[in-house]
Amino acid sequence: MKKLLNMSIGVGVAALFCLSGGASAQQAAFTSAPVDVFAGPAPDYPVVSQLPQGLQVTIYGCVAGYTWCDVAVPNLRGWVDASALSYPYQGSNVPIPTYGATIGLPIVAFSLGAYWGNYYHGQPWYRDQGRWINHEAPRPGPGYGHPPPQPYGGHPPGPPRGNEGNGRPPGAPQGNYGRAPGPGVNHEEARPEHRGSAEEHGHPPPQ
């Protein structure tokens, strides 16, 4: 009897642990804009529904990079673009793609067969799984695995390179670059004018 009681207590503790773990894996967020719900983590999966702005959703996890998240509302489950989700964090609503790791949202993998079998069995496109079964997994978004980018605080950019400097190649002089010389322009070095004496011009010298 004592052994049976201990087993019952152990099963109850294990069940409680599983329930608490499942609850902690779910996070409440809000839609920051109207967003479509897709049957997978990409915009070319079938559209399941659309959510209005400001609706609370439950996030069950996101793909690596926090670009797409698996969400649920009453009687609906699907994937939404994470850029349309915000999470209340430290007194403000923060974007999921930037703060997903900080918040602690779990990274999940998408299995089309299992997911569709659980949630989309009655959809008209359910039997057309072969069209998406080999869909490439979403790539991590920019900045994944790194802290959010900081404002630029370096040196100002240098002068333009190559042929970006007003149509002149590097080192070309300023001025009429690329123009033909005007009529009568002599490229030889200017020489001082020689006036000569009065006798040379056929005039008598002044008295």
UniProtKB/TrEMBL annotation:
Residues 136-207 are annotated as: Disordered. Gene3D superfamilies: SH3 Domains. Keywords: Signal. Residues 35-86 form the SH3b domain. Residues 1-25 form the signal peptide. Residues 139-160 have a biased composition (Pro residues). Residues 186-207 have a biased composition (Basic and acidic residues). This is SH3b domain-containing protein. It comes from Caballeronia sordidicola.
